[in-house]
Amino acid sequence: MIDKNNWNNFLNELEDLKKYFPTYESPDIIDKEIIHKISQTNHKFSFQFFVLPKFLIPAITTILIIIGFFIINDKENCKKNLNENETVTVKFKIKINNAKTVSLIGDFNGWDINSTKLSKNNDDLWTVSLRLKPGRYQYLFVIDKEKYIPDTQRKEYTVDGYGNKNSVIEVTDFFNSG
After folding, report:
1. How would you label 107-142 residue by residue, b for 16+ Cβ within 10 Å and e otherwise?
2. Looking at domain 88-171, which of 2.60.40.10, 3.40.50.2000, 3.30.70.1230, 3.40.50.10800 is its CATH number?
3. Is pLDDT at 32 greater than 60 in this prediction?
């Protein structure tokens, strides 16, 4: 149990800490009411603080900024490491019931409906894996050579000028097609 001396010391330390950490200031009356109610309770509790010396805060902040810079820069370097002639395997999949054929058309195959056929498994899941160079591609699935639909698993779309919504995929060397 905290006695009143320890409690008052704790409150004084909190007041000192407020100088170093600017935060939302609640009206004093609320603080006093809360403190009064807490001091009236008969609960056992303790407070433990880890307080950094004031001179270490800028140093730690600088170190964290530098680490963040290297993480971001490393991700950018990953994109640059894959040259324009290297490829990445990308798996396209769509679940369609009662389809006889499913094709994939897009920037990567000249929008040719006969170029990329998907294979069907037992659960009506149609899939195909392609080796693609890094870049940004638009594409659609074609069901039974007549119905054009975007990939529902992708969040990014673009309008093609013909009233269709094309799916968009960005391929990089750390691409995960899931």
Report:
1. ebbeeebeebebeeeeeeebebebebebeebbbbbb
2. 2.60.40.10
3. yes
